[in-house]
Write a structure and sequence with these properties.
The protein is of the alpha/beta class. It has 2 domains: 68 residues, Nucleic acid-binding proteins (OB fold (Dihydrolipoamide Acetyltransferase, E2P)), CATH 2.40.50; 251 residues, Rossmann fold (3-Layer(aba) Sandwich), CATH 3.40.50. It has 11 helices and 19 strands. The chain has a 6-stranded parallel beta sheet with strand order 11-10-9-12-8-13, with helices on both faces. It has a 5-stranded mixed beta barrel with strand order 1-2-3-5-4. Helix 4 crosses helix 11 and helix 7 packs parallel to helix 8. It is globular and about 60 Å long. It starts with a strand and ends in a 5-residue tail after the last helix.
Length: 368
């Protein structure tokens, strides 16, 4: 069910990459935050009448909790003269009113098709997999603490936001030179490269981008239902499998929290237990943050218990957090996870950073 509202753009509040946030006044007189994508609706001037999807906003949800500009009926973007002028034939967000056509790095019209047609090997490329999008900057910070010039590609799956332009994090990391490229896979779209699957996304990172290290995570706005299996982060386990079957080196970034009010996410999250312990089926490394005090001992015990229960498939590695606070403070984008800043949930960011540190150490031969 979709809640439709009409209104008028009052002002542009902010903008990044291909996204713009507006203040829009509804016909009821209420002013709401509204997000518009430039590729979809163009640049909107104050006074422009807009059609809005307010479904998630009216439910008060964190995921999708903005009014989304569907169209500006009286100010439509100029149409492309011929459909053939639009490159590619990959349709993403298929059979929705917002479906878009893109050029896939792996499709026949791509300049990289010949490279990827028979590509089947990541040749040991470290692939760090995370449950939450918010882990991305911390993972990269940990990697750069070991190898400052490391070439990192980000593969965004479709468990959260579909348009990559929604992510201020990716825009900021790209602007700062911390990411060499973003690759959107599945129904996600808007990356520097588009790919059909996680598998071709990983292969493109290796053979097209020339990445030293890849991070795979869903876009912002993960979905969970408080059940064992009903959460979008199960895709983390599937990404581990993709990396393993392509002869990469899967590295599992643990989801850890010392501040989450939900018991299932305190310490080692049940998302990590399920995704890595049950969904993932190939050998993978699990960097465990060496945290102080009783909480650190709890996380270490939980992580080692997880790995011990997989008959050697998951290998736990205790990794020091020394120096990572400084590395995280140097991140060029705000650190925030589930509405909590770095100082509110330090352990969560350190758990992601040690995954990056471990993966980068593999490049120099310092890892196990």
């Amino acid at each position: 069910m979709i809640q439709w509202r009409s209104g008028v753009v009052v002002q542009q509040r902010s903008g990044w990459a291909g996204a713009r946030e507006y203040a829009a006044r509804l016909d009821s007189g209420e002013t709401v935050r509204a997000l518009g994508y430039v590729d979809v609706v163009g640049e909107l001037a104050p006074g422009t009448r807009v059609l809005l999807n307010t479904t998630a906003l009216e439910r008060g949800l964190g995921t999708g909790g903005l009014a989304i500009v569907v169209a500006a009926p009286d100010a439509l973007p100029r149409p492309v003269p011929e459909v053939t002028a639009v490159p590619g034939h990959l349709v993403k967000a298929r059979y929705t009113p917002s479906q878009t056509m893109v050029l896939g790095v792996d499709e026949q019209d791509s300049a990289h098709h010949a490279v990827l047609r028979d590509a089947d090997d990541l040749a040991g490329l470290p692939v760090v997999v995370a449950d939450l999008h918010s882990a991305l900057p911390a993972i990269v910070a940990g990697a750069r603490a070991v190898e400052p010039a490391v070439v990192v590609a980000y593969v965004m799956t479709d468990g959260g936001a579909l348009p990559l332009d929604f992510s201020r994090t990716v825009a900021g990391l790209r602007d700062a030179g911390w990411l060499a490229a973003s690759i959107t896979v599945g129904q996600a779209h808007g990356g520097d490269l588009e790919a059909v699957t996680v598998h071709t996304g990983l292969l493109a990172a290796r053979h097209v981008v020339g990445a030293d290290l890849v991070v795979v995570a869903q876009g912002p706005g993960n979905l969970g239902t408080g059940t064992r299996w009903g959460f979008s982060g199960t895709s983390a386990g599937e990404a581990v499998n993709a990396a393993g079957v392509l002869h990469g080196r899967p590295v599992c970034a643990l989801r850890v929290s010392q501040a989450d009010r939900r018991e299932r996410h305190r310490g080692l999250s049940h998302h990590s237990r399920t995704a890595y312990g049950r969904v993932a089926l190939v050998a993978a490394d699990v960097p465990v943050p060496v945290l102080p005090g009783a909480f650190g001992q709890l996380v270490r015990a939980q992580a080692h218990e997880l790995c011990a229960g997989t008959a050697g498939r998951l290998a736990a590695h205790d990794v020091s957090c020394d120096g990572l606070d400084a590395a995280l403070r140097a991140v060029p984008v705000p650190l925030s996870t589930m509405g909590r800043a770095y100082q509110d949930d330090r352990a969560g960011f350190l758990a992601s950073a040690v995954a990056g540190r471990f993966a980068a150490a593999l490049l120099s031969g310092a890892g196990p």
